[in-house]
Amino acid sequence: MTKPFIAARAVNVFYGANQALFDIDLDIEANKVTALIGPSGCGKSTLLRSINRMNDLIAACRFDGSLQIGGQDVYAPAVDVVALRAQVGMVFQKPNPFPKSIYENVAYGLKIHRLATSKREMQDRVEWSLKSAGLWDEVADRLDEPGNSLSGGQQQRLCIARTIAVQPKVILMDEPCSALDPIATAVVEELIDSLRKDYTIVIVTHSMQQAARISQRTAFFHMGKLIEVGHTKDVFTNPQNEQTQNYITGRIG
Amino acid sequence: MKHIAPIRFGRVGVFVNGKITPMADQMLILTQTIRPKWLDRLVIALLAAAACVAILVTAGIVLSLVFETLQFFNKVPVMDFLFGLDWSPQTAIRADQVGAGGSFGAIPLINGTFLISAIAMAVATPLGLTSAVYLSEYATKRTRDWIKPTLEILAGIPTVVYGFFAALTVAPFIRMTGGQFGLEIASESALAAGIVMGIMILPLISSLSGDVINAVPQSLRDASYGLGATHSETIRRVVLPAALPGIAGSLLLAASRAIGETMIVLMAAGMAAKLTANPLEAVTTITVQIVALLTGDQEFDSAKTLSAFALGLLLFALTLCLNVIALGIVRKYREHYD
Amino acid sequence: MINFSKHAGFNLSRRHRAEQRFQWAGRFAILISLAFLVIMLGSIFRDASGVMRQSQIAVAVDLGPEAIDAADIANISFGKILKSAMRARFPDVMKRKDKKRLYNLVSPEASFEIKRQLTNDPALFGRVQTLWLTASDDLDLYLRGKIDTSLPENQRQISDAQIAWIKDLKQAGQIRRVVNWNFLTNGDSREPEIAGILSALVGSLFSLAVCFSLSFPIGIGAAIFLEEFAPTNRITSLIEVNINNLAAVPSIVFGLLGLSIFLGYFGLPRSSPLVGGMVLALMTLPTIIIAARAALKSVPPSFKQAALALGATPVQAVFHHVLPAALPGMLTGAIVGMAQALGETAPLLMIGMVAFIVDVPQSILEPATALPVQIFLWADSPERAFTEKTAAAIIVLLVLLIAMNLSVILLRRKLEQRF
């Protein structure tokens, strides 16, 4: 097994008095898609949002344990969440383009981080991002139109383009296809697969079929505990744990 | 049959809360239903009549203003009123005087009204918006819980109190401060009235735009934070642009309030109908002139008295337009994010 | 390759400084807004503090049988008696001008006070009596150090001779300061030292009573209709649009409506609380309707459904079950509306409630003024003492408003516990 890119050790997360995650130890490998699955409320999204510290925005949320990315401790006092989130991008459940033009949506991260030194470079990077997200051909001639004029699937790919524009190392995806129709879902799944070679991807999904289709590794959560983790094929065909077995066969969840 | 005393709501409350109600109560309700239908119809008709009072009031306002205004335009041409640059109705008191027609050019009044409202907006917009942003985005719940009601006190203070404050504290202060810099400031300057009016509309702007800012979906903020934006970048580049239509609506409502405000300007802005953009000079407004024309001796059909109604109609039309636009924008904005 | 520290690039230090600046701007804006409030209330309280007490002078008035005829109070010239009492206190004063200044130490109303005290207590007749009489506003201001004595004599309201007399009186214990109940029990007056707010207060209460008895039933009726019975058609939406727009019509326009329709067309008595209350009722109607609708909306639909299920007609269901539950919420809306009406000035100016009213109005048809209008009138008076009266009247107004708003808060708190 290769050295893990993201390593969670003894992670406990609390929302006020409620504990959402119990003693999670999880390794996530670079340039692979890791799927976090489990019934709703199992803590998979909480773990995802702990990786780029989006949980900091919830005042009552408390993190305990250690989480490292590329050997850097995410929760060390010296960490600047702005720098962290610039390198650990996130795609959300519902497509949430800004109420700006398609171009401005993709350029947003570049502008706040001042990653482009000239207008030319900005345009090039926006184009590159949209191409990487497989959206360029559909929007090339209407970059000035508002982002929410696109269809749901296109909007989600716009959000992915927006995320990869700042060239993060990791992309976190929180049920990115749950609001999309099957055709749009297929397009986005294809895109995720193609992004794997450049990014480490962690995806929370409700759909086991999706996990099976796009991920290389799968982690199964239940009631805040990590039950089982391994190669996707193994987890689905030969689960070691009875709870996993019950979940993938549809008996719980 | 005569209907039996109605049962009190408390008993049905018990029933609704899932406890068993004695049979007798249900029997009572059943017997009650035997009651003439026309009585219900009468009640509903009375209620409908009450609701129609709202229409009657609007109709009353429009009709009375329009009626008197038409009479006014019989004496003074519409164009002279709307585009005249000179306002001196005093000369119209006696018919045998030279220039007995008086001058009824409303432009200096409109100018004064807008000048003072502009000053008020210039004071209230930055303060109101910034406080709204701070309260809804940064302040802890505890801070918000006592600062918000405190700011709302400003909204509950009667305007005559603001007028007193403007005339007796702010105006002399501005005059004195200006004097120290060698500026000649009128004791009833537009500036004093405008600043105090700004304070008056400040809570309106901060509470309305605070609501608008809160209505911006969290998902947009998350998207921005997820890209590594700081809090202020998220506010400036995502939240405020997204809230812009709603904020514009709340600013329009505040402007309409400023334009229609009477007491502050009556007490602090003076009577001089001057066509100036200088905030240090005294100006007069539509509302001040309405009061000046209608308090004291009146004859109902002199051009002087009637002109007050023409000014009233102008004011009504002006504020109505602003309100309709503002409410429209706000409604559209709400639908957008619902 | 991976660096999450603040040295990771991304212009972090500049951006964090901008963040700090932004937050400070917010704090600053709130601070300024609060400062305005504090300064405004502070300056009003400072101005009003002087009205808490008033000055009185002890004057030895000759009420002996050779000076006056006790049987004929109506024809006694108390002014003369007072003047001679003042002259007796300072026998050195000879010149006409100086005498006048001496008389000016007491309020012009003081002679009426002698009469009143005598009427209340006829036992005072028969000899020289020391009576406490209201001093002039200038004396009061001087005692409180509000008159700049370093100015040349002809530029201040009080002369050197008067100052000497005051000092003499004070030394003799013939000047005192007492709680100023007159301010609450008197009507308006040209003399600031005896001017009070009672007539304005009663005018306001009459107007509010008229306003409430019109706008509350109409407002609630309209709300019930719109919320429970109105068909969804164009007339209903027209009514709703009307209500929303009326809420934002400048108050002075309502005054114009009152002037041309209530006074001009119906010929109702000018300056009366009746017309004032009617105008205020129209103004507060939207507030009450909107609040009442919100109250009706907050009643759980199960209340109505339970009644309907048991066979009540829709009207019965609403009046017996929904309305009682919504009533407290409607009441808070009505109080908010009344608070609005209490502070309203401009429309009352239009219908003539701006007169000089000394006597307390006895009915809603008599000419009256209202508290905010009284404030407006006093604020216009040049005398410094009236400035203080204005501030004190403002405080009375604010106390009433605070009381109303507190009752709203308490009612709301009670309501929140209910459902």
Helices and strands in order:
The complex is a heterotrimer of chains A (253), B (338) and C (419).
Chain A: E1 6-15, E2 18-28, E3 33-37, H1 44-51, E4 61-69, E5 72-73, H2 81-87, E6 88-91, H3 102-112, H4 119-132, H5 136-139, H6 152-165, E7 170-174, H7 182-195, E8 200-204, H8 208-214, E9 217-222, E10 225-231, H9 232-237, H10 242-248
Parallel strand pairs in A: 3-8, 3-9, 6-7, 7-8
Antiparallel strand pairs in A: 1-2, 1-4, 4-5, 9-10
Helix pairs in contact in A: 3-4, 3-6, 4-6, 6-7
Chain B: H1 9-16, H2 23-32, H3 37-75, H4 78-83, E1 87-88, E2 103-104, H5 107-138, H6 141-156, H7 159-180, H8 190-215, H9 218-226, H10 231-260, H11 263-268, H12 286-294, H13 303-337
Helix pairs in contact in B: 3-13, 5-8, 5-10, 6-8, 7-8, 8-10, 9-10, 10-13, 12-13
Chain C: H1 12-48, E1 53-62, H2 78-89, H3 96-103, H4 110-120, E2 128-134, H5 137-143, H6 160-171, E3 175-179, H7 182-185, H8 198-229, H9 234-246, H10 251-265, H11 273-298, H12 301-309, H13 314-343, H14 346-350, H15 371-380, H16 384-418
Antiparallel strand pairs in C: 1-2, 1-3
Strand content of chain A: 25-35%
How are the strands ordered across the major sheet of chain A?
6-7-8-3-9-10
The SSE string of chain C, one letter per element, is: HEHHHEHHEHHHHHHHHHH
The tally of helices of chain A reads 10
Structure report:
The complex is a heterotrimer of chains A (253), B (338) and C (419). The mean pLDDT of chain A is 93. Chain A is 36% helix and 25% strand. With 253 residues, chain A is an alpha/beta fold. Chain A has a domain at 6-100 and 171-241: P-loop containing nucleotide triphosphate hydrolases (Rossmann fold, 3-Layer(aba) Sandwich). Chain A contains ten helices and ten strands. Chain A has a six-stranded mixed β-sheet, sandwiched between helices. Chain A has helices at residues 44-51, 81-87, 102-112, 119-132, 136-139, 152-165, 182-195, 208-214, 232-237, 242-248; strands spanning 6-15, 18-28, 33-37, 61-69, 72-73, 88-91, 170-174, 200-204, 217-222, 225-231. With 338 residues, chain B is mostly helical. Chain B has a domain at 103-337: MetI-like (MetI-like fold), CATH 1.10.3720. In chain B, 73% of the residues lie in helices and 1% in strands. Chain B has helices at residues 9-16, 23-32, 37-75, 78-83, 107-138, 141-156, 159-180, 190-215, 218-226, 231-260, 263-268, 286-294, 303-337; strands at residues 87-88, 103-104. Chain B has a two-stranded antiparallel ribbon with strand order 1-2. In chain B, helix 7 (159-180) packs across helix 8 (190-215) and helix 9 runs antiparallel to helix 10 (231-260). The longest helix of chain B has 39 residues, at 37-75. Chain B is globular. Chain C folds into two domains: 50-180, no CATH class; 198-418, MetI-like (MetI-like fold, Orthogonal Bundle). Helix content of chain C is 63%, strand content 5%. Chain C contains 16 helices and three strands. The longest helix of chain C has 37 residues, at 12-48. The A-B interface holds A 52, 54, 57, 81-87, 89-90, 92, 94, 96-100, 108-109, 111-113, 159, 162-163, 166 and B 217, 219-220, 222-230, 233, 237-238, 241-242.
